[in-house]
Design brief:
alpha/beta, Structural Genomics Hypothetical 15.5 Kd Protein In mrcA-pckA Intergenic Region, Chain A, 6-stranded mixed sheet, 5-stranded mixed sheet, 18 helices
């Protein structure tokens, strides 16, 4: 490819490229570029939202460049405030390391492992925070710059608190770029401030500044907020085929064009003419095949049609033994049908929970017979056993 063709290939579907001139200069050098992407292990799963940036990183790999996946074991303890309307809970280091265990395998569902370097940012941030480097860096970033962030402005206007740790987050992410001497950093559109801080910190340290490239945010299954582990509206790359297929079938119809554009290479003109149900089945099949295989995608489609179109119970229904006298919301949470007890109670109040086929609309102690079926939403079925 010519340089112009490479830039077109690498920036297709991207939102911000700061700057194309810098990217052209780096590509013209003929050297292998370091392309950085950070992932904070705030839960055990990478999700489809991550796969948008991972797929862009794979394009760089396909042109011979090196991917550096930064596992944010240090920054996850703080929580990225980008796009947030509230402070994230602080995670214990043990939980962070437990969450990070499978990140490499999940990322390699998209990336070429032979062209990927995995780094943990505690390697340099532990000493950065404990030494004088942090104080020197703080001298070069103004309060005004930080308060220009749209997400911080919105939170201050609403009276939602902003912790000093959150204010420092962009500096820590930027220091990742300094430590790695990254040539390119990728992220969602909500990350542009953090990426530009990294670019500025590199300049301050006499390093050729990285190119900052952002991709659109994938809206989550709720159709409102960005896909996020914290919001519980995500499709994990490690989700079982039937669960992945079922989640994708629950996407609001109006999000189909966005999902196809960000997650596939399908012809968008053809997608727009498809019936929403047919479009969802095709999308679910494409993604299950990508993250599992074609056979799993075919079986997931058959399972979906059997359970939801013909109203049959799934053959591979898991068994669950509730604690005696446990509240229904607690049972749903412990069985994995809801991300929290509050969300379980919301499912009950919405009429999305059935016991023996009968709708349950009030929380309370669960009473059942051996073998009764508990259903939550359209995807979760459990055979209750004593």
């Amino acid at each position: 490819m010519t340089i112009e063709e490479q830039i077109s290939f690498l920036t297709r579907g991207c939102v911000d490229v700061v700057s194309k001139a810098d990217l052209a200069k780096k590509l013209e050098s003929g050297r292998t570029l370091k392309v950085k992407l950070g992932c904070d292990p705030t839960s055990a799963d990478l999700h489809l939202g991550h796969s948008v940036a991972l797929s862009l990183m794979r394009r760089f790999q396909d042109l011979g460049h090196k991917a550096v996946l930064v596992i944010g074991d240090f920054t996850a303890a703080i929580g990225d405030p980008s796009g947030r309307d509230s402070t994230r809970p602080i995670l214990a280091r043990e939980q962070i390391l437990e969450n990070a265990k499978t990140y490499t395998a999940q990322a390699f569902k998209v990336l070429d492992p032979t062209k990927t370097e995995i780094r943990f940012n505690s390697e340099w941030l532990d000493s950065f925070v404990g030494g004088k480097d942090l104080l020197q860096t703080l001298q070069k970033v103004t309060v005004a710059q930080v308060l220009e962030r749209e997400d911080f402005k919105a939170r201050m206007a609403s009276g939602s608190p902003i912790s000093l740790l959150e204010v420092l987050y962009s500096l820590f992410q930027g220091q990742d770029s300094v430590a790695l001497k990254a040539d390119v950093e990728l992220g969602g559109t909500d990350q542009i401030f953090n990426l530009l801080v990294g670019r500025q910190l590199q300049k301050n340290n006499g390093i050729e500044p990285q190119v900052a490239i952002t991709v659109p945010l994938l809206v989550g299954l709720d159709g409102v907020k960005k896909m996020s582990k914290s919001y519980g509206n995500y499709v994990g790359l490690n989700d079982e085929p039937n669960d992945m297929f079922g989640k994708l079938m629950s996407i609001p119809d109006e999000l189909m064009p966005l999902y196809y554009e960000l997650l596939t290479s399908e012809n968008m003109d053809e997608v727009k003419t498809m019936h929403p149900m047919a479009a969802k089945k095709k999308l679910a099949g494409i993604l299950v095949a990508r993250f599992h295989d074609e056979q799993a995608a075919k079986a997931a489609l058959e399972n979906f049609e059997k359970v939801f179109s013909k109203k049959e119970l799934p053959a591979d229904m898991p068994s669950f033994t509730p604690q005696p006298g446990a509240m229904l919301s607690a049972v749903l949470f412990e069985a994995g049908a809801a991300a929290s007890k509050n969300k379980a109670r919301a499912l009950i109040e919405q009429g999305a929970v059935r016991l023996k086929g009968e709708r349950v609309t009030q929380d309370g102690p669960l009473t059942f017979e051996n073998g009764d079926v508990l259903q939550a939403g359209k995807r979760h079925f459990f055979k209750l056993v004593k």
